[in-house]
Fold this sequence. Notes:
Blueprint: H1 9-20, E1 25-28, H2 30-36, E2 45-48, H3 52-58, E3 70-73, E4 82-86, H4 108-113, E5 123-124, E6 130-131, H5 136-142, E7 144-145, H6 151-157, H7 160-172, E8 175-176, H8 178-187, H9 196-208, H10 212-222, H11 224-228, H12 230-233, H13 251-261, H14 267-275, H15 280-283, E9 285-286, E10 292-293, H16 297-311, H17 316-327, H18 339-349, H19 354-366, H20 375-389, H21 401-408, H22 414-428, H23 436-446
Parallel strand pairs: 2-4, 7-8
Antiparallel strand pairs: 1-2, 1-5, 3-4, 5-6, 9-10
Helix pairs in contact: 6-8, 7-9, 7-10, 9-14, 10-13, 13-14, 13-19, 14-17, 14-19, 16-17, 18-20, 21-23
Amino acid sequence: MDLHVQLPISVAEILEKFDTAKYEIYIVGGAVRDILTGKVVHDWDFTTNATPEEILKIFPDGFYDNIFGTVGIKTEEFERPLEVTTFRTEFGYSDKRRPDKVAWGKSLEEDLERRDFTINAMALDKNLNLIDHYNSREDLNKKIIKAVGDPNERFGEDALRMMRAVRIATELGFSIGDKTFEAIKKNSPLIGKIAKERVKDELFKLIASPNAADGVMLLKDSGLMQEILPELIKCFGVEQKSPGRHHIYDVGTHLVMSLKFCKSTDPVTKFATLIHDIGKPLTYKKLDTGVITFYNHEMVSTKIAENIADRLRFSKKEKDKFLTLVRWHQFTVDEHQTDSAIRRILRNVGPENMEDMLALRTGDRLGGGATETSWRLEEFKKRLIEVQKQPFSVRDLKINGNDVMKELNLKPGPKVGEILEEIFKEVEEMKIENKKEMLLKKLKNLS
Ligand code: ATP
Ligand code: MG
């Protein structure tokens, strides 16, 4: 036994049951990495010479609903099912989401050989002996990501591996080996052949990582950014330092620094922070006074954000939030703001997004060389809460029953109250503004 680890009961049980049934069984993938680095294993994957049908004989409650040969085994111990996959000779497919068929491998060696990176190509047998054909353990200790075999060939087979290299390096805080990195630079245009959903998944994982800013720089240096986010490349080198203004970085660097300081863990919020000024290169103007302006940049940024969201197949919910955060990121914070101005900001941003909007603002401030907050911003946060707490009832509406009766030609009666309630609800949910002319217009539309 190479390693001394206390295996979870259900993991030990899987090893034992396969062994009893005379099949080979190994722990593979991220779990081996985590065990070797002393981390909590978040994801247990196994590989075996048993076919899916044979696995199901050992675990009749297992479920096998995909053509990758993965059988899921539900346990009480873990939320996610443990996954057992028959030895494979193929991993990843360049242009399709799913292969037409999966070829089963004959041996563990064959299976490991087809895995992407050395640190991912180790296995632990049932006695916890480490199987390491690629010097993986050394690479893990050196915190380095290297392709298994010839990197050019491996990225040619499956271009998504390039994104995986950058994403895994980001998550683990590792570097990418020279040859592997050179191969990414050379093959980066191939990423265009990969289904956008898969690219997006990798990008979101990278952005969700606490090291996201480093990851984004790695995307840039590897050439992958040019392929998947060309609009962001254009921001680097665009100066924005005006006389007497606080900006210390060019637009691209400012965006990456904003991401670095954005405290949210939500990838959509962090992504919005990364691109909030992406329209600046297109709106850049330098006045005779030397002052640089980016008039209307938030509108242009929103348009670009929309292209990005569509291109990367964001869900509707993700896209709505992404665009909202970019569109309204310029909200002003001012001690003379009226309650209704604050309500308007809340309505535009959506009360449910306000915290994330503030996380973007904090990132934006720190990423531009300003302090984390200001008394104005703190004051604003207090007022946001106050404004939302203020008792607000139908009586506070800027129209009353008389307006309803007049506009809709109604006689006094319960209908009038119902309509007022309906309108009140919309105002309360911030769908429309509590302004007389707006509410009258709304009434007209009802008639
Ligand atoms: P994590 O689950 O923490 O993201 P992981 O290494 O377990 O890390 P998975 O995506 O779960 O990553 O993949 C499991 C294993 O399958 C990897 O460790 C790797 O050996 C192999 N693998 C996954 N995708 C590919 C691919 N595109 N090409 C080659 N091997 C792959
Ligand atoms: Mg995994």
